[in-house]
Structure formats: structure tokens, C-alpha cells
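task queued by scheduler; priority normal; single chain, no ligands, no partner chains; default sampling; output format set to C-alpha cells
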Amino acid sequence: MVFITGLLVILIKILITIGDSVIRVLTFFLKIIKSSFGFFVYFFQNLKQRTTVLKKRSEVIIYKTKRPKTSIPRPSIAFNLSFPKLRLNLPIFRKRKRGRKPNISFFFKLKYLLAGILISFFLVFLPLISIIIFQTLPSPRELIYQEVAQTTKIYDRNGKLLYQIYANQNRTLITLSEIPINLKNATIAIEDKNFYSTPGFDIFAILRSAMADLSGEPLQGGSTITQQLIKTRLLSPERTIERKVKEIILAVWAERIYSKNQILEMYLNQVPYGGTAWGIEAAAQTYFGKNAKDLDLAESAFLAGLPQSPSIYSPYGERPLLWKTRQREVLRRMIDLGFITKDQAQKADREKLSFLPPQHILHAPHFVMYVKDLLIKKYGINMVERGGLNVITSLDLEKQRTAEKMVKEEVEAGVGLNFTNGAALITNPKNGDVLAMVGGKDYFNDTSGNFNVTTALRQPGSTIKAVTYTAALMNGFTAATVIADTPVRFDSPGAPPYIPVNYDGRFHGNLSLRESLGNSINVSAVKTLNKIGVPTMMDLAKRMGITSWGSPDQYGLAITLGAVEVKMTDMAVVFGTLANQGERVDLNPVLKITDYKGNTLEEKISTPARRVIPKEIAFIIANILSDNRARAIEFGLNSPLVIPGHNVSVKTGTTDNKRDNWTIGFTPSYLTAVWVGNNDNSPMNPTLASGITGAAPIWNKIMSNLLAGKPNEGYQPPENIVQKPCQGRNEYFVRGTESSAPCRPISRNEISPTPRP
């Protein structure tokens, strides 16, 4: 801080010195001019009275006349030509008397500081910046040449085309006279109301946008139509001050070359309107199946609002009704500028627009939009929508189609259980590949079908208990540790007592940790969490892959029962960490990206992994979750959690009031997560049984299909795992902990289902 303050003081002194020196120079020249002016006035006013000029033999003889009594005072033309010794009669330049400080006011110093800043900016910095910028500027004359924008294509892992972003530039150039006046006015109203009066940029709009940005308000557009044309056609999409300066310079330059109408015509013919529509003629054909000249006011207002963000305001996007809000904003701006009347706007607002169905290829739609969002965050929307990227994803289209079919069939068959939607996610835990993503039963359903459940926040239910017991094993527990499933009450100041109950409404007495996790006993999980602490469990969950949780002081013991929302994509990483024997591998659905020239931008060659839990602990948890006998109390021996011929680790979860129902299971090579419920979070039928109905049958079908014809994969015990008879079975222990748990048979002592505080 001291160093920065010192630099600021030095900078201020330099600027004051520059201002001081420039003022001295200006004063010096002013004195010269003043003295010279006085001399010439004196000379010419007294020439007739004082001199007679005679010429003889090329000699000039000047005869002086008698000086009149009343004469103009002869001005002094003496001045100090020694610039370094120039001194002004100002307090700052007066010689300081010994022992006395100069009486210089703050405002006097401020004047020299400001002078130094202004002079330095205009005489030094601005010229240098201008030289640097002009060296890299393209010519606005390039705007007249037609440039073909590139198509971004998204493929599955086998090269099958999933989606094309702006696949074909169905662009037909038309003249400005063919464009309806309402469309021109709507575009000017929403994009640049001062278009015909600005020199290419609007200083007030730029300042307004900057102030909104600094104050944290929603971003406002500060670019004119000319600037947008320049940015779209001649410059990169980067958001930097240098690019903005270039944009303004080129906009002013372009306005010196082209008329306003020419610029507006180029803008309307060359900007993207979403999908494959480039230019207003293609947009009119894409959305309404008509020529641009036939567009009415309502259609014109809709199209004028698209260029700012075609993906967001498109009626084919994830928010298919947002265009209406944008259209109304356009109509309101047109009223404010006097382009239309309120009656005309109201009539246009009431008009129902009929959009043509999208004509492009779209497979695995939830996955494609998920990948598109990831690409936009990394490369920017302009690069994704216009840059000609070729994206090879990890998706397997055949597995995707199978999963979509199974989810849809089971959801439609589960009408009696009152769930209307389902989602599934298939990954390869070893490398983070997303093999299938079904975000809902029908993407094209009019009622929120494009809502992607796999990336949304939902309560995970008892699936999160896998994290609780993993943390317990890392903090002194073993698979044979006895946990009493008996009534318990937790009191906290200022809050009602917390009394956990089990899913089946019963208490089962003493249970081992293996049985508590296998049967998903709520009371045991809460007691375990109370012993190890919420912060311990939450810290591990975050390290294993949860990204949506806050600080531990926000949550209570109910977090182990799935009371805090998570994303399915995060849960896939969490269970994938167990599948990878303790190493976390984040999801990465992209295998390779190249640009339109074939240059590789990124490629998944090796998958980064980091160990977050010991290999021995991951093995024991995976073993418990695959133990069909350990879960027999609640699920029986023939539940949908069993895949004949394969050892599969699996955990179910159902939230309070049956709002969310999950099943997540894995082998070393495949992980499948399934959810069923309702998008509006309404409860399902109370008879829904966790692990038997709902998500489990879908999970069983998908996992059985994935493992069909493949050898059984299992986990071999790590070196530090020991096995010994304990509690009627050969139990696994981390070496050194095998003597810490009692191995005598456990007395169940089931008690009344009614909890006693």
C-alpha cells in the first residue's frame, strides 16, 4: 500500500511539473507577442510624425523629426530570451525567503495538476495510442464484400451429427427500399434511436452503459448500429477497451465512406437473427415463411429484437416465451420515438405470431444445449454461433436414444404414481465422458419440456448418505461399527427439536454401519453425522464434487437425508469418485474441438484426476453398496437394484413428501443416475416405494442394457484391506482398524415404530 501511494505521489508531481513547464512556455511566447504587438503599434502610429524616408544610391536615410509634446508612450520591448531563467510573477515561482514556506493554495496546485494531465493526454498519450491502434485497424471498405460465416457443428463420439449452430447462412441480400418502414423504425428504436444524428458513436449511450456496468445494474447497450456492424464484420468478439476504441474509430471512418441508409442496409442484411437466419430476408423466411417486404408491425417488432441475443430471444430456445417480452420492449420504444401510436402497438401486441417449426437437425437436445452453454462460457457466443467450430463430444447417440426411450416409456407407465417427468445421466467415471443425457421425457413438449433436470437443483434424498458414511469411515468408523437405530431427539436453542424417523416408520435396534447404509436407515445416518460433524461431511462432499452448497453454518443434521439441493451432474462426479477408487474426475463432455481451418483448439488426451478419499475407504463403500444381502431388510433380495451376473454398487433416495426419487449406481466403467418427479416440485403418490418403484426400474433397464454381453467387473481389495469373520460375515477393514469393532453377533431388538423423545 505504501509503495502504491508513493507511485501516485510521484505521478502527481510529474503531472504538476509538466503543467508548470507548459504554462511557462506559453507565458514566454505571450510576452513576446505582447511586446512585438506594442512595438508595431508604436511604430506605425508615429511614423509620419517622426521620420522622412529618402532613398539615394541604394541607401536609406532616416531623418528624425521633433518629438511631439503629446506622444504615445513608447512600449518596452525588452524581454528575457533566456528561457530557463524565465520567472513568472506567481506565488509558486517567487523566490522563497529563508525560513518561510511558500503560501501556495491547494486549488493553485490542483490547477497545475489538471493542466499536466490534459496536456500529457492530448500531446503524449493520445497520439501514441492512436498510432498503435491505427496500425492494426482493418478498412471499413471491407464491409461491401460478402463474407460467409462459418457453421458450428456438434457431433457424437462416433462422428454422427447432433446439431448445427447456424448451419446454413440462408442469406438473400435485399435493398433498403424492399424493407418495410416498420422494420427499419423498429430496428432503430431498439438498437440506436439516434442513428441518423450521431457521427458513428453515441457518447451519451457509452457513458450510460459504463455507469450501469460500474453500478452493478443490468448491462445496457452502448453501441450504435454502425458500431454493431463494425463489431460483427470486422473485429473480434473480445471485450476489451482496445477493441472498443477500434470499434469507435472504424465507425466514424465508415460513416465518412457510406451514407446512413447504406449502413442500415448492410446491417439488416448481415446481422444474425438466430439459427440459420443471417440477414432480414432469411429471418423472415425462417420464422414466418414470407418475404421481408410482407412483414407486418408485430412480426417486424419481433425480428428487430432478435439481433441483440438470438439464442436467448429465439422461440425455439430454452425459454421459448421470452421473445414476447422483447417484442413489447421494441413496441414501447417505437411509441416513445413517435414511430407508431399506442393503438397500433396494442394491436400488434395482441396479434398471435405463428412460427414455422425449426428445420434443423437436433439429436440429444438437452445434451446439445448443455454443451453449447459450456462452449459459450469458454469461447463466447460469437465464436460459437459464427466461428465454424467442429465439436466432437463424448455422447454415444445409440445409448442416448435407448435411454430416451426407456425414460419416456417408464414415465408414461408411472401415471398412477403421479410423476410426470424423468431424467437420466450415463457417464464413464474413469474419464468424465457423458455418454447420454436425458434432461426430461420430451424436450419438445410445450410445457417446459426443454427444462434440463440433470443440471437443475433438486433434493438428493438418501443418495447423499454415501458421502456421510464415507466421511465416517475416514474418521474412526468401520463397516462393522454398531449404530443404534433407536428414537433420538436433537435440541437446539431457538429452534424446534429435530426428531428423525425412518422411511418405513420403524426402528430396527442395533445395526452395523454396513446394514445402516445398505438399508438407508435415516436415524443411523443422522446419529453418524452428529458424531462426525456437519462441517466434516460437507467438506468431503465438496471435495468429491458438490458445487452448490454454502457454508456449514447454514445447514443442520437433515443434510444427510438429502434436505439440501444438488445437481445430478454433481452427484455423478461424487459417485464417480467412489467408482474411481477415491479419485475425482470431473465431467467433460468434449473430446475435441477444431476451428474452421482444422486447427485443434482443445483435445481430451489424458484425464486429470485427484485423490480425495483413500482407496481402501472407496472400496469398502462400493462393496457395501453392491451387497444385496446387506440391503435385504428394506429392499428384499429381488429388487430392481439387482443386475444378474454383475456386481453393481447402487444407492436410492426419496425426499420428504415424495417430491424427488433417485437411483444412482455404478461399475468401474459405467455410472447411471436416474430421477423421477415433477418439474413444479409437486409431490408424487405416497405409495411410491424407494428402490422398488419410480427411478429404480428405469435405472435397472438402462444399466442392464449397458452391461449386456459384457464381463462382470468387480473391485479387487487394495493391499491395505484385511478381511476377517465379523458379525456373521467376512467383513472388510482398513488394516489397523480390524480390532476396533465388536464382531459378536448383533442383537436387533426392534422396538415400537413410535419415537419417544
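post-processing summary
- Residues 2-91+105-120 form one domain.
- Residues 22 and 37 are 22 Å apart (CA to CA).
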